[in-house]
Amino acid sequence: xxxxxxxxxxxxxxxxxxxxxxxxxxxxxxxxxxxxxxxxxxxxxxxxxxxxxxxxxxxxxxxxxxxxxxxxxxxxxxxxxxxxxxxxxxxxxxxxxxxxxxxxxxxxxxx
Amino acid sequence: xxxxxxxxxxxxxxxxxxxxxxxxxxxxxxxxxxxxxxxxxxxxxxxxxxxxxxxxxxxxxxxxxxxxxxxxxxxxxxxxxxxxxxxxxxxxxxxxxxxxxxxxxxxxxxxxxxxxx
Lengths: 111, 117
Prior knowledge:
The structure holds 2 protein chains of 2 kinds. Chain A is mainly beta. Chain A is built from no helices and 12 strands. Chain A has strands at 3-6, 10-14, 19-21, 23-26, 32-38, 45-50, 56-58, 64-68, 73-78, 87-95, 98-101, 105-110. In chain A, the strands form 3 sheets. In chain A, strands 2, 5, 6, 10, 11 and 12 form a 6-stranded mixed sheet that branches. In chain A, strands 3-9-8-7 form a 4-stranded antiparallel sheet, with no helix packed on it. Chain A is globular. Chain B contains no helices and 10 strands. Chain B has strands spanning 5-7, 10-13, 19-24, 31-38, 42-50, 65-69, 75-79, 88-95, 107-108, 112-116. In chain B, the strands form 2 sheets. In chain B, strands 2, 4, 5, 8, 9 and 10 form a 6-stranded mixed sheet that branches. In chain B, strands 1-3-7-6 form a 4-stranded antiparallel sheet, with no helix packed on it. In chain B, a hairpin with a 5-residue loop joins strand 6 and strand 7 (75-79). Chain B is globular and about 40 Å long. The A-B interface holds A 32, 34, 36, 42-46, 49, 51, 90, 92, 94, 96-104 and B 33, 35, 42-43, 45, 48, 50, 56, 59, 91, 93, 102-111.
């Protein structure tokens, strides 16, 4: 069965700082990887996804993620965060008819 | 509709009662999923429906949980004899089938927050 690990569950940073959230996965099949975001009071939304091809994936709102197969990683980055990026971020891997999610990263951006 | 809808948005019930949660997927999506989001457990898969195929029930935590999908569209998740540990947000998601679009891109509804007293 697939699994995902996310570290540093709580992240606090100031506006304009850079953000990097780590994601490591375990799955033996074809890898489809996702980052979802949940803003306060809102439902899960897709930030970006990787199916194949270029391992550097661009998503919405200036986010990007890099798939490194040798490290089983799919880290999320944003060069300069804004207060509106305050949210919970979930990494997920698809396999066996489901998404397996990490525990999430609660990110708070201080104005 | 424009997105996945779920009802009710909040449900408070007493221990031992049965509850039904409803999900309306995006029109044209043949795959439907239920997940549960709870403190300490994160997001857990419950059940998956694909068209008229038998559902994948491997994520259901006990036989008190069941789900059905009528006419390939609306789905109902039923929890019998609710327990306090069933308190969580129950999320529904839908996606296009494998042969009609990007594999695995799931669109989530707003969830039903279940509180068992």
